[in-house]
Write a structure and sequence with these properties.
The complex is a heterodimer of chains A (about 500) and B (about 325). Chain A is about 50% helix and about 10% strand. Chain A has about 500 residues and is α/β, with parallel strands linked by helices. In chain A, the strands form four sheets. Chain A has a four-stranded parallel beta sheet with strand order 4-3-5-6. In chain A, strands 9-8-10-11 form a four-stranded parallel beta sheet, with helices on both faces. In chain A, strands 1-2 form a two-stranded antiparallel ribbon. The two termini of chain A are about 30 Å apart. By secondary structure, chain B is mainly alpha-helical. Chain B has one domain: Fumarate Reductase Cytochrome B subunit. Classes of the chains: A alpha/beta (about 500), B mainly alpha (about 325). Chains A and B meet through helix 5, helix 7, helix 10, helix 11 and helix 15 of A and helix 2, helix 5, helix 6, helix 12 and helix 13 of B.
């Protein structure tokens, strides 16, 4: 790794942050010159339903049973649809109504939001973003909103306002940091999910997410993988494991009647091979090699449905339940993914429980195995810090287990300043992983990377696939070569003694 | 003593304009405000409760929105809600070297002093119900004044902070209704404090009380009842307190004549209190329909009250499989 250099400063909020804020506009200009086709990156991100998205079930009317709008809507129809559906959703969604009614505008959430820190944009803060919707809520739900609209900032929905709602609600990463800090616990992510749901029902999704969900619906994973492709990678990884360890470590796929169904991230057979190796080595060391299997039908822990609609979330969740049930599995082990763990923990686990199937996170198992001496690990010659994925710590009841693991495998473990509940989002949550949002990504992820960099750690460990896709980009832009981003299981794989 | 004063108040004949005004603003409106408050809050709370989580009984596909880890029972979730409600502790969490200690202090002092002030107001209602809790007049004066003044100062600080945050972050967080609410509170507190200050003598000795009664109640229907008023002030601290208590009692018993006369006397001797009462009525009407409803919100927030299933059973099963027991 190259020598540590002083990176560009993150705004110190203690002082006046404005003059020191990241020069987002300048960055955007530079980016526009370098990538002219992405100059209008904000507007380029919209994807209205097209024929190929039909496969991803983005068909208006398909999951909004009361309507049959079919394919593209005119701008006027979109406004009309949004208003009507918003009114309905207010009656159907407790959280949305509660959060819209109860914000006192104290502004405490503003500087807690990494998106605001990155952009300093009026509406790119939790309260500023929610106020876009709160304005139409006041107009359509309150008498005073219509009578004194200008005084109380109530607004009738227009095409322009809908465009703003589209933009800003697709720049919320649903990390829920604002919900933790908010004195009332107002969860802006839930407002975002409701808004995105309505957009999805109109057939409008962010392009990167839309393509990913299309794959998820068709193949059960985010990467358009079929069984043959997965097996080919497994074979290659098995050979590498043989060379590394001298052991015959088999990675099973679609083994019938396995007791354990293992769910990895589909990126584990692409960019995160070390994560896959970590899984395989641990399962081998625990003597579970003949008792578990991966499934080509649900080769995915991630669930981009969480970012789009309940329909897509539940469809993928039900697929996992169905495969586990069909397999006769007693236990489902979840690999490394942040948002996927939220969808899994809060939808799939209760559904599995109904069928008598238990579920556990891989790191819970590893933490237990290390504590009980069931696997032996050596200390790696690295200083490691840990990034708490938002959805693990603020939505998934998983906080201490990764720390137990990292303390066992690292020469030194250093806690970040903003840890556990206060963890900072990676800046690419909700699938903001496209090239077109690169300016946003590198600045939105910078607070978290900076927090890790300050510890002096060589490795930023995180059990989240989006983090593992996002952090290397942020590191490369701000502090090239000064820190690595790896999965927690990667380090376990490196440290385990077989 | 009190019955003698009630008799005195009942015998007063207020001018027709005063009767009409008092009947509308301090009888009709008072009943209306309380009804709107109760019905409005119930309406809001019931609507939160009866509004479904979402389609299929889930929050857009999720069984829960639990924000905290290690919450495996509703009691623990209730604990978090309780702690949040009474400590505002998240405001003390550091973010990039910054702790909003001033905001926290201002907010917690504001809320606690408001509650203290309302508790002291409760003694007026207690008096009306015949359950008056005797407090030495000096204690009553300084405690009430202190709590009210603290709330007033904190409110000014919080209002300034609002403007500062907006200027600093360039995120518009203040709209007309925000300022209206703050203005309303400032009026209520300001006039309440002013009324209290003017309703008490400067010292709490008998001679000072007598001097106050002689100067303050030298004209009008209460003139010439010095002994009675001095005795009442020694017992209850101020005649204003007794009059407001009588007004409450009259409203609760439906004695409209007594209520109007009490208001008439307040108009003659303590008009600042009437401004305080009027805006307090307005505030009660406003509570259910604006952001003031936030005080009832937390127990219904799904991010706070949810719970996870315990981790141990799944881990035990995994251990059994690892150790070959299954």
């Amino acid at each position: 790794m190259s020598e540590r250099k002083i990176p560009p400063p993150i705004p110190t909020l203690k002082k006046d942050p404005i003059p020191e804020s990241p020069k987002f506009e300048e960055w955007k200009k530079w980016y526009a010159e370098k990538f002219p086709e992405s100059a209008k990156w904000i507007n380029a991100r919209k994807l209205v339903v097209e024929k190929f998205l039909y496969e991803a079930h983005f068909v208006p009317g398909k999951f909004v049973k009361t309507r049959d709008l079919w394919f593209k809507l005119s701008p006027e129809e979109r406004v009309r649809f949004f208003v009507e559906r918003f009114k309905e959703v207010l009656k159907q969604n407790r959280a949305l109504r509660l959060y819209l009614e109860n914000c006192t505008h104290c502004g405490y959430c503003i500087d807690k939001c990494h998106m605001w820190m990155a952009t300093r944009d009026y509406h790119n803060s939790p309260v500023g973003r929610a106020d876009l919707i709160r304005a139409i809520f006041k107009y359509y739900d309150k008498i005073t909103g219509r009578l004194f609209s200008k005084l109380v900032d109530a607004k009738e929905l227009t095409e322009q306002l809908l465009e703003e709602i589209w933009i800003y609600f697709h720049q919320c990463t649903e990390c829920r940091r604002c919900a933790y800090f908010c004195p009332f616990g107002i969860d802006t992510a839930e407002i975002t999910r409701a808004v995105r749901q309505i957009f999805a029902e109109m057939g409008m999704v962010y392009e990167f997410v839309g393509n990913t969900v299309r794959s998820l619906m068709n193949t059960g994973n985010h990467m358009f993988l079929n069984a043959k492709a997965i097996r080919a990678v497994f074979d290659w990884v098995e050979q590498e494991l043989k060379e590394e360890t001298g052991r015959d470590i088999h990675i099973p796929l679609d083994r019938p009647k396995a007791k354990i169904l293992f769910l990895p991230s589909s990126t584990d057979v692409f960019t995160n091979i070390d994560t896959l190796k970590g899984f395989a080595k641990v399962m081998y060391a625990l003597g579970l090699q003949d008792k578990y299997t991966f499934s080509s039908e649900v080769f995915e822990v991630g669930n981009f449905g969480l970012f789009v609609s309940d329909y897509h979330l539940m469809k993928q969740g039900n697929r996992i339940v169905e495969v586990a049930t069909r397999l006769g599995a007693e236990l489902v082990i979840f690999g490394e993914c942040g948002h996927g763990w939220r969808a899994f923990k809060n939808y799939v686990v209760p559904e599995l429980e109904k069928r008598g199937i238990k579920a556990i996170h891989f790191l819970q198992l590893v933490a237990w195995a290390i504590k009980k001496g069931k696997i032996k690990v050596r200390k790696l010659d690295y200083v490691v810090t840990y990034h708490d994925p938002c959805n693990l710590v603020r939505a998934g009841d998983l906080v201490e287990e990764p720390r137990i693991v990292l303390k066992a495998v690292a020469k030194e473990f250093r806690e970040r300043e903003h840890n556990r509940h206060r963890t900072l989002c990676c800046g690419a949550g909700t699938g903001l992983l496209g090239e077109d949002v690169m300016p946003l990504r590198v600045w939105a992820g910078w607070p978290s990377v900076y927090d890790a960099w300050k510890t002096g750690a060589q490795i930023l460990a995180t059990p989240c696939s989006i983090d593992k896709a996002q952090f290397p980009v942020v590191i490369e832009y701000h502090i090239p070569g000064q820190m690595m981003c790896k999965g927690v299981s990667d380090l376990v794989g490196w440290a385990i003694e077989l | 003593m009190v019955s003698e004063f009630v008799k005195l108040v009942s015998q007063i004949s207020a001018p027709p304009a005063a009767v009409a005004t008092a009947a509308v603003l301090y009888v009709g409106l008072a009943y209306f405000a309380v009804i709107v408050l109760i019905v409005g809050v119930l309406f809001k709370v019931i609507r939160w409760v009866v509004t479904p989580k979402g389609p299929g009984g889930l929050y857009w596909g999720l069984y829960r929105l639990t924000l905290y880890p290690n919450v495996h029972s509703f009691w623990k979730a209730a604990g978090w809600i309780f702690v949040r409600m009474f400590t505002f502790y998240t405001l003390l969490k550091e973010n990039f070297g910054y702790v909003s200690a001033g905001f926290w202090l201002g907010l917690i002092l504001f809320h606690y002093s408001i509650w203290a002030t309302l508790l002291f107001h409760g003694n007026t209602i207690a008096y009306a119900l015949g359950m008056y809790f005797h407090v030495p007049e000096a204690v009553k004066y300084w405690l009430g004044l202190g709590a009210g003044a603290l709330a007033f100062v904190c409110l000014i600080y919080l209002a300034i902070r609002r403007a500062y945050v907006q200027a600093k972050t360039k995120v518009k967080i203040n709209y007309f209704d925000d300022w209206l609410l703050i203005f309303l509170l400032l009026i209520i507190m300001g006039f309440g404090l002013a009324a209290k200050i003017t309703a008490y003598p400067t010292q709490f000795t008998e001679s000072a009380i007598t001097a106050y009664v002689l100067s303050h109640y030298s004209t009008g229907p209460l003139a010439g009842h010095t002994h009675l008023l001095v005795e009442l002030m020694k017992e209850y601290g101020s005649i204003m307190f007794v009059l407001v208590g009588l007004w409450f009692k009259a409203l609760m018993t439906g004695n409209i004549h007594l209520a109007i006369n009490a208001i008439y006397l307040l108009w003659l001797y303590h008009p600042l209190e009437l401004v305080h009462i009027f805006f307090a009525e307005m505030f009660l009407i406003y509570i259910p329909w604006g952001k003031m409803i936030h005080m009832f919100m937390m127990p219904f927030n799904p991010a706070l009250y949810g719970k996870f299933e315990p981790k141990d059973p799944a881990l035990s099963l995994a251990i059994d499989i690892v150790e070959g027991r299954r």
